[in-house]
Amino acid sequence: MSSKTIAIAGAGRMACALGRLFQRRGYTVSAVASRSRERASTAASSISPTTAAVGYSDLPRHATHILIAVSDVAIPDVARMLAVPAMHGGIALHTSGTRGLGALQALAEAGAHCGSLHPLQTVPDLERGVLALQGAAFALDGDETALGWAHELVRAAEGRPLRIAENNRAAYHAAAVMAGNYLITLLDTAAGVFESIGIPRGQALLALAPLARTSLENAVLDGPERALTGPISRGDVDTMQAHLAVLPPDVRELYRACGVATIEVARRQGLPEEAAMALERVLRQN
Ligand SMILES: NC(=O)c1ccc[n+]([C@@H]2O[C@H](COP(=O)([O-])OP(=O)(O)OC[C@H]3O[C@@H](n4cnc5c(N)ncnc54)[C@H](OP(=O)(O)O)[C@@H]3O)[C@@H](O)[C@H]2O)c1
Questions:
Q1: Across the 286 residues of the chain, what is the mean pLDDT of every consecutive 10-residue run?
Q2: Ligand 1 pocket check: which of 14, 20, 75, 82 to mutate, most ligand atoms within 8 Å of Cβ?
Q3: How many whole angstroms from 117 Cα to the centroid of ligand 1?
Q4: Closest by alpha carbon to 112, among 82, 156, 71, 72?
Q5: What residues are in contact with ligand 1 under a 6 Å CB criterion?
Q6: Which fold has domain 5-165?
Q7: Cα dihedral 222/223/229/234 (nearest 10)
């Protein structure tokens, strides 16, 4: 079977979004597998009318090229179910950012080429996932053959390949958590502070959104040093003290930690060392 025919293990958000995306980009998603026939059928029909709904151990009959998009903890079990003689010479890529290639050991022992293809993107549901995955970065690892197919898939998604070796995987994923999940946390916390002064949550998020979006865009387009404005950039100790005085203790800790990290950006921007140290003293004091 060719690299253009894909079978997908998993029937969740990532499985469906990748399936729909690659089906649209000229691949045939021949089958989708889940523990439940019903969930597999729902996932298959969300990808294409010809995608079959099967159990995990049947998947290798439908393609030699398999994407494993199941929960991280389930990858070794699923790999064992897929490790049948038909996979000898085939390719399996998992989509986890945290699990290494050891999770696919059973498939490697069965003679399959193993790798990983982690979309550096958030996929909250099928529709938004398909849009978000196009042009995303993808972290790749694996043997030469697996990497070859992974690169082909990234090109099909018009994505950006990032080769991440096993020993760098944890650092890579920690950075991804900060850039994705922690942005949400910061926005959520800021909205909570607005709520505490009487601005309803919905309005708070809408009011903060343009500021958050513009800051992010500027940081990406111009670099963090040029994008940074505000009291830390100006070395404004009085304003930092005023902020710390009104924030509740848990928010204050987050504010302090982000503030100390922001001083480093301000230093690179040219903030005089004396001003940077004065800010640091205020932010680090109990
Ligand atoms: N969603 C994201 O934003 C995102 C981003 C990057 C990478 N990923 C990666 O993509 C993979 C899938 O994530 P997801 O968000 O699509 O998860 P999900 O929506 O929760 O779907 C998880 C899938 O895993 C299967 N599964 C769970 N436990 C299982 C088990 N014990 N044995 C066999 N199958 C099991 C489920 O199959 P059943 O139908 O059989 O229950 C389900 O289809 C993960 O490796 C995740 O780290 C996700």
A1: 90 98 98 97 98 97 98 98 97 97 98 98 95 98 98 98 96 97 97 98 98 98 97 98 96 97 98 98 89
A2: 14
A3: 14
A4: 82
A5: 10-15, 34-36, 39, 69-72, 74, 77-78, 95-97, 118-119, 122-123
A6: Rossmann fold (3.40.50)
A7: -120
